[in-house]
């Protein structure tokens, strides 16, 4: 059981490393939509971090499909 927890922790740390150190690889243009300006993943990454409450709407096609199947 402990090995599983360590493996999960390692996976999350790896994902966090890529998101922080290389935002251009984790936030690609196809993964988000910007309504106000042209897309620039590097600048948009930091704009998302500094966004106020209500400025960001999170959608997931996967979750939408799951919710459809539940109905």
Give a written overview of the molecule.
By secondary structure, the chain is an all-alpha fold. It has one domain. It contains four helices and no strands. The longest helix is centred in the N-terminal third of the chain and has 20 residues, at 2-21.
At a glance:
With about 70 residues, the chain is mainly alpha-helical.
Please give the share of residues in helix: 55-70%
The separation of the N and C termini measures 36 Å
Number of H- or I-type helical stretches: 4
Number-wise, the strands total 0
Q: What class would the helix/strand composition place it in?
A: mainly alpha
List low-pLDDT spans: none
> How many structural domains are formed by the residues?
1
Major sheet characteristics: none
Query: How would you spell out the order of helices and strands?
Result: HHHH
Tertiary shape:
flat
Oligomer: single chain
- Please compute the radius of gyration using only Cα atoms: 16 Å
The averaged pLDDT comes out at: 76
Strand percentage lies at under 5%
Topology (SSEs and partners):
Elements: H1 2-21, H2 23-26, H3 41-49, H4 61-70
Keywords:
single chain, 71 residues, mainly alpha, 4 helices, 61% helix, 0% strand
């Amino acid at each position: 059981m402990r090995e599983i927890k360590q493996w999960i922790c390692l996976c999350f740390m790896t994902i966090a490393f890529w998101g922080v150190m290389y935002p251009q690889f984790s936030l690609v243009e196809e993964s988000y939509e910007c309504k106000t300006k042209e897309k620039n993943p590097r600048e948009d990454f930091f704009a998302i971090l500094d966004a106020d409450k209500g400025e960001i709407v999170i959608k997931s096609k996967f979750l939408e499909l799951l919710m459809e199947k539940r109905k």
